[in-house]
């Protein structure tokens, strides 16, 4: 899994690209507090190499809790900027610093 960030000089946004290797998966999306944990808001597209990929604009100077939803199962990003315990979910969430 990987996350790439590209900051724009002209806007207060960061283009964030998520790449999730999941060859056997049918659906992968990124859910988090930037999209109210809605799986339909940020679906990733399957690439020919079996990875799922998507690039989204996120407001910079913020931190976001998120997870990947792979065929209905939540998965953490091991290489996130940090991890934070979430009492509501009863689990640790990856954190993206933008």
Automatic annotation (TrEMBL):
One of its GO terms (biological process) is carbohydrate metabolic process. Keywords: Hydrolase. Residues 80-90 have a biased composition (Basic and acidic residues). Residues 8-98 form the CBM20 domain. It comes from the Bacteria. One of its GO terms (molecular function) is hydrolase activity, hydrolyzing O-glycosyl compounds. It holds the Pfam family CBM_48. This is Glycoside hydrolase. It comes from Antarcticibacterium flavum.
């Amino acid at each position: 899994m990987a996350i790439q960030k590209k900051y724009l000089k002209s806007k207060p946004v960061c283009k964030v690209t998520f790449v999730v290797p999941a060859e056997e998966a049918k659906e992968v999306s990124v859910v988090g507090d930037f999209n109210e944990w809605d799986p339909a808001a940020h679906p990733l597209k399957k690439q020919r190499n079996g990875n799922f990929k998507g690039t989204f604009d996120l407001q910079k100077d913020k931190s976001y809790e998120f997870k990947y939803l792979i065929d209905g199962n939540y998965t953490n990003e091991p290489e996130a900027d940090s991890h934070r315990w979430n009492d509501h979910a009863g689990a640790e969430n990856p954190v993206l610093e933008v």
